[in-house]
């Protein structure tokens, strides 16, 4: 399998597609039916508003990428909230809390025709504590007559309300200008340097249990699928709160489709998988633990490694795995998955919920590794000792010397070795193994590329 490693090295040298750029996040909050979705569609420049006319229909928290005046940002539509046992007010307040954790700026949408209700007042109390900029939108101001309704919204104590008609577009340009003013150039650092929730791809061959797992993680059976799903321009992502942290699961629209398209040939499924991985920072590759590891599983894993994303392996359907199968699986893993020995494994069941709580800590570990940089001093201290004990094998009578190393990149960690000659793949693999023994990097691919100085 040395040739395989050589391929990875070449991919590293090419420096293929970079992870997505950091984008600031705008959250849109408000009671059901005030026009959040209509407004979000307007902000995204969609001609056709996608709106649910039934009040109280459960919608996902979804994230979209927006572009205005050359600046990119992410819009999070926190959706219509089903009043829970504690009532609508607490549900919307929780939504506002969530927005504060997720966003760099917040838009609070109020139906100007209705005015501020007790719910808006409760939300405003939450938002006033927030350190994020808040813009109050007085929505449904379709014409000049509506403007009179707007002034009363000053009482929310969140500054000047902006009259807008999400439906007709009135005032939406001004709103976007104000949004850009409110958003920082670069997102704040709480989520790591990418800004916003960390991006996760949930991938695996068909029927492995991706949508079941997503449903389990979001804790709801989502039979309602947002209509925006399926547009290729804006794959719809889901925000999922796991273990006290909000995560952005990318392109979950495809997973949500109840009726899976028969025309979705393997080729297209594979393109979609690749796109999801590339849009993400970390991938959960779901493998069916109850069946032998297949070609298709290995292909998906290879895609993750080749795109240089962090990786968590999850063996699903563990409820069906008995003693015999477990032994068999261990053997398969030893045989087929040596290449990704650095990836953590979680044995889950989307059906029973077994161990799904372990996914978030593993995602964090993998991303920490992915973000880690070893200082040049430490790296060379380690390397000098290692090379003194195990010098690289000579080739054609000449012994290559490793002059020094530096970690040129994170995401994924990429080590560049400056040498006086070619290093054999076997030796590079040895270096990687030793490197991981010292520095860990659990859950992240590590690339080692060699620059030969003549
Ligand atoms: P959400 O639940 O807050 O996302 O609200 P929706 O976007 O689903 O809108 C709820 C209802 O209000 C729909 O019937 C929309 O057509 C209507 N609506 C939304 N924006 C406006 C607006 O600017 N003017 C008017 N007249 N109606 C609007
Ligand atoms: P997807 O194509 O990857 O989204 O897979 P689905 O989530 O649609 O699941 C495919 C089938 O596997 C469905 O019949 C699920 O009920 C079943 N399934 C998913 N997860 C599990 C699990 O953990 N245990 C068992 N026994 N069945 C599961």
Automatic annotation (TrEMBL):
GTP 1 binds at residues 30-37, 77-81, 139-142. InterPro entries: AAA+_ATPase (IPR003593), G_ENGA (IPR031166), GTP-bd (IPR006073), GTPase_Der (IPR016484), KH_dom-like (IPR032859), KH_dom-like_a/b (IPR015946), P-loop_NTPase (IPR027417), Small_GTP-bd (IPR005225). It comes from Saccharopolyspora flava. GTPase that plays an essential role in the late steps of ribosome biogenesis. SUPFAM superfamilies: P-loop containing nucleoside triphosphate hydrolases (SSF52540). Belongs to the TRAFAC class TrmE-Era-EngA-EngB-Septin-like GTPase superfamily. EngA (Der) GTPase family. GO terms for biological process: ribosome biogenesis. SMART domains: AAA. Residues 1-25 are annotated as: Disordered. CDD domains: EngA1, EngA2. Keywords: GTP-binding, Nucleotide-binding, Repeat, Ribosome biogenesis. Residues 24-187, 198-371 form the EngA-type G domain. The gene is der. This is GTPase Der. GTP 2 binds at residues 204-211, 251-255, 316-319. GO terms for molecular function: GTP binding; ribosome binding. PROSITE patterns: G_ENGA. Associates with the 50S ribosomal subunit. NCBIfam families: GTPase_EngA (TIGR03594), PRK03003.1 (NF002828), small_GTP (TIGR00231).
